[in-house]
């Protein structure tokens, strides 16, 4: 066992999600071998040559897409304390919008994505890292049906999320006052159970292919929860990535309806949000849920070069 940021224990790969990654890796390898050796499945002359060229172009296109994405991330993310410029966000978002499952070695025909049966017990979430450096990380998350990534934050981070396959429900919040929590704490909260006021940003279902979502350090739904409706694959670009050493650990929350707690001692402090109570909630910091199970597998899609 080993530990990643957020305190999530990472086990050896197991289950259908790991099998999907392995199958994708094998498929990508077969395409690379076919392109490199010129395998002719049907024999013959000119027809085989055309087939080789088509396979080679397909492999090169898959590799080129993830390589271009990597190069764009390297240009866009400049390290902790920085946020990509609007034109850079637009460029990276457009690239992710065009990404297909095949660009990272996946296919909707893999058994993991065709399985619609709910797993027994708590589903295990699988993740694989395409690339990671101090400035950014590129990861893919595999969620079986009914799997949940609990409500959590992304401190000081800009995150691009692209749903590649499947359907999921996303619920996200931002703090009402991101700079200070003194005027947005429930007066009924004890010192060891602070409730901080947040506003709802997203609460909806999404099905691939759909637009890439972007969250920022204080806007865009920095705290979100993923719930898989069907088996899903999501590519996440995090800049900078989680780091316990640099005080960017993952914090988990539970959301509580706004009306269940009174506001601060001076209600006038929140007059600007009182009229939108339906989109407000109190967030309570919690320990990492014990039922959260995640495992890590090796990335087997088209390789990237950081030269």
TrEMBL record:
Start-end of Gly residues biased regions: 41-50
Region described as Disordered: spans on this chain: 33-56
Superkingdom as given in the UniProt entry: Eukaryota
GO terms of biological process kind: detection of hypoxia
GO molecular function, one term: cysteine dioxygenase activity
Record EC number: 1.13.11.20
Cofactor(s) needed: Fe(2+)
Keyword Iron in annotation: yes
Enzyme class: oxidoreductase
Protein family membership: Belongs to the cysteine dioxygenase family.
PANTHER family reported for this sequence: 2-AMINOETHANETHIOL DIOXYGENASE, CYSTEINE DIOXYGENASE
Protein name: cysteine dioxygenase
Organism: Urochloa decumbens
